[in-house]
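anyone seen this seq b4? input:
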Amino acid sequence: MRIALGVEYDGGAFCGWQFQDHSPSVQEAVEKALSSVANEPVRVICAGRTDTGVHASEQVIHFNTKVERSTRSWVYGANANLPDEVVILWAAPISNEFHARFSAVRRRYRYVIYNRNVRPTFLAGRTTWDYRTLDVTRMADAAQCLMGEHDFSSYRAVGCQAKSSVRTVHRLEVTRKNELIFIDIEANAFLHHMVRNIAGVLMAIGAGERPLEWAKQVLAFRDRTLGGVTAPPSGLYLTQVEYPAEFELPQVRQASIIW
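predicted toks r here
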């Protein structure tokens, strides 16, 4: 039997999603909790690995098991064994054709910037603070050149292991709500640090430190060393993973923490 689950987590307490020998990971916490419910070892596969400090309002995972449990047992049993920073949102039996990573057709991220001249308190670790006055109109205009299919070599980490650096961005919007700036981006898939590198470039443009056309110039370089600063992980949220309708996965209303 294959089970799919939705997972929400605060990434600040973990070294990222993927299991690490030296530090606590979200994967380790989730597998330990599910193994307790199943009374046997459980290994999970996720839609996309997130880095240290990156959050998720709906990560999607799956695992295989011969153990029969109700969906309620998988959710509430796992949550009883998870740390406060992680929660299972839903569970659903799924076809063996489903794969959390390879069946995904689109992924959505939100990058949240706290834009004021003094640092935040309540939102520290949940947003990225930028004391500079950021012009959202400039950021939004500059972002338009990144729409569509491009080689994002300049916007991925130097150590990115993806075989191809070509990705298709379906949506990229920059908006402001009082002191919060949101960068919402949707693509077929993402490269390592891609969203954070895009955010770094747009923030520099918004601060007036770079010209409007710099985002396009960086894209054309196809060289990460000529790109901008990688923005901090604390403002980044994996908000949704989209799958073909045939899998009929539960739809979750986005949590209030991502505004």
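The two ends are 36 Å apart (CA to CA). The chain has two domains: 2-103, 106-238. kinda curious what u guys think
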